[in-house]
Write a structure and sequence with these properties.
Blueprint: H1 16-21, H2 35-46, H3 51-63, H4 68-110, H5 114-129, E1 133-140, E2 145-152, H6 157-160, E3 163-165, H7 169-177, E4 181-183, H8 196-205, E5 209-217, E6 226-235, H9 243-276, H10 283-312, H11 317-328, E7 332-335, E8 341-345, H12 359-372, E9 376-378, E10 381-388, E11 391-398, H13 406-447, H14 452-461, E12 470-477, H15 483-493, E13 498-503, E14 506-512, H16 520-535, E15 539-547, H17 550-569, E16 576-578, H18 579-582, H19 584-589, H20 595-613, H21 617-626, H22 631-638, H23 642-656, H24 663-683
Parallel strand pairs: 15-16
Antiparallel strand pairs: 1-2, 1-6, 2-3, 4-5, 5-6, 7-8, 7-11, 9-10, 10-11, 12-14, 12-15, 13-14
Helix pairs in contact: 2-3, 2-4, 3-4, 4-5, 4-9, 4-10, 4-13, 5-9, 9-10, 9-13, 10-11, 10-13, 11-13, 13-14, 13-15, 15-16, 20-24, 21-22, 22-23
Amino acid sequence: MSDPSPSADPAGPTDPATLVDRGVAGPAAAPSSAAPHLRRLLDLLADDAPAEALGAVSSRARAAGVPAGDLAEVERATATALRIRGALRQHRRRELQLTALFDTAGDLAASRELDDVLKAIVRRARMLLGTDTAYLTLPDEEAGDTYMRVTDGSVSVLFQRLRLELGEGLGGLVAQTASPYATPDYRTDDRFRHTRNINAGVLDEGLVAILGVPLLLGSSRGGTGKVIGVLFAADRAPRVFSPDEVALLCSLAAHAAIAIDTARALADTRSALDGLAAANAELAEANAAVRAHSAAMRRAEESHDRLTDLVLRGRDVKDVAAAVAALLGSPLTIHDPGGRPLAAVRPDGADFAADSMDAGWLAETAEESRTGARAVHRDGRWICAVLAGRELMAGLVLHRRAPLDDSDRRLFERASVVTGLLLLLRRTVAETENRVRGELITDLLTDGDRDPAGLVERGRRLGVDLDRPHLLLLADGGARGRLAPAAVRYLFGGDSHGVSAEHHGQVVLLIGADGPGADAGDAARAASAQLGQLVQAPVTVAAAGPARGVRELVSAYGEAARCQRALRVLGRTGQGACVEELGFLGVVLGNGQNVDGFVTATLGPLLEYDARRGTHLVRTLRAYFGSGGSLVRAKDELHVHVNTVVQRLDRVQALLGHDWNEPARALELQLALRLHELAGAGER
């Protein structure tokens, strides 16, 4: 997504003369330490100086004869300052784009004429994505085709007058599937049907990369959303549209569909009023119906304005839930895709404790809502999917058995759009912050011994107090490239507050463990389940801690890595555990020993005998060792006669040899029995 205002840096003195006055450029007295140069870096960051000015600090320090050790510190600080500057600029771009989207919502809410609505839609679409042109097509029901309704940035008269048969081109594919499509090069893309008419218009306009999203409204008889038009953004050079850009254009299209529907409804109302003037006999009844309809429309508009105002004020999803619960007079909860409650509010604005919802039921119901592009009623509750493009971000659940009239239903559905915008904004901010903090974790694990105090101070500036106790989780599995974003969503959407980073092909999560109930094993199992659900694949999670300070955290990472290897050796892929739960086997297996070969070599005759004859020699031997060699306690555990235990042990001796109960051999047998038991637990 391009920067909405790339023409200039934010305010700050960048004039060379000014920088000279401040000591940024030009000759300066040679300092004897790094302190003046580090202060200069901070001043430049505060003034939002250009990257060249930041990069020049280390050169000036070198020219000033700063000692080698201090010079290395200045160079590292310069690199950090450049990364911070880049992250801040990216964050500002995100804020500008989302502000533009919120301004769009306000413009659309204030528009009443259909032409004004359509022009505002196309103009904002081009501005949001920073494309060369944007346009909108609408179906012509009388002619049976689709025509170019509004364009912005177009220079070709042929393109502006283009008419398309149903199903032709990229727009036809979007309208048929009710899904967004993007092409980096339209002329070579064979996913849709090219025609001479369309190719001539696109060639005359010079378009190459095109993104189209549907304008969906209500549902058709087939149960899918009704496509009332297609919104496009296009460039005259090859370009790959990112998922965030697709999601933003889909959000704008959702507002646009509602605004078009509202404008058409108002036009229909005006037509009805004009027609009523000729029917004096039915004037009173018709006026009453119009007043009721207008009141419902005003209520819907006021409600939409209220929700939009919440977004513009930077409120949270809880505030949206409170507003919708008060307007509809029923309790409302918002759940993440895993079923966990994000907000639960009664009509009077009071919070209440909501239970987690069955994730399978929520996903199935939300999919029905997504497919139908409207709220659905199930088991005494109204559910509406909160989407970002095609991704399910949350589910709005209105706890109400009574039906919703059309205006209330539209209000409930609009609330899902606003909630999606807020969640998308929160995710964008969380991803940006996590990316900066993740570099701290990578540096800690890569070279934590070099400057522990510096890492702690750097973490404190980023809001990560390394001196507080943390659990360290090491996650592995899932499709490549999907686990790291899933870890950010896991930390962002749940109760686990922390930071994540990729390290040596795995994902490291650092989670606060200040509470008395912080348990590494429980945290590993919870993360394994949630991450597996997010990536739709088994994820193995090993945990260590709590640990505090740089050295303890580095040690905890090594412990978690050994636990991860032990889980793989035991065949417990897709599970979570800590080393303490594996006991001494976690230490033994952490080096990747051949467990199956050892168990087979040690217990092979007994396993084969039990499998062939249906006996319980392995179980009897485990009970015997577990009872400290007591035949009486062993027979009580096995619920058999003591003579039966003796007979089975005689068979064990016949199969394993006379030295089976000697100390060294007995230790091997007990280790093999424990490994066999743990491997069986993993299979279960």
